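Lay summary. Proteins are chains of building blocks that fold into shapes, and those shapes determine what they do. In this project we predict the shape from the chain. Here is one chain we studied, written as its sequence of building blocks.
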Amino acid sequence: MRIRTACLFITAVGALVSTTGCMPKMSVDDLSAMQPPRPKELDRLDMLLGRWETTGEIEMAFLDEPVKTGGTNEAMWALGKRMLIEHADLDMGPMGHMTGMSVWTWDEARGKYRMWWFDSMGEFSEATVTYNERTKTWYMRGKGSKHGFITFGRGTLRQIDDDTLEWTWREYDALGLFKFADMKGISRRRK
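And here is the predicted shape, written in a compact code that computers can read:
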């Protein structure tokens, strides 16, 4: 009942303001000035741009030996350079071919980077990401869904040089007690 009363009050105040002329008039040009500036924190994501060759391995809890992986990925700006979109095309060894997509951005309200991952195996996750300027390392913590199970993961993405990234990702059950997978690899920018 309180929500309905609050909505009616807000509607009544809005109607009163608009009919009494208390609302300032604006021009179409004023609308463009209302767009917030692009956060400078997004510029850090430039280090991820380009086409990359990736090699890695995955140690899985239920396998005796690691699975070798490899493929390519490409990252580019989208939506007025406010979102970094990455498309991956990977050979997952005995698990077959996989395509994936990640989206990175700066969340000004939280003061952190955010990243989402989706892939053709039906997995998806979202992570909060921080960056350490001194070590040139991204630290990721997130939750996801893997074959009907809620998962928790954490990983790193470290810049070795302008054209080399070293990455890790550990994935656990929702409580963080059982480790499903331990992944690591190198991505090298294509020239």
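What the prediction tells us: The chain is about 15% helix and 55% strand.
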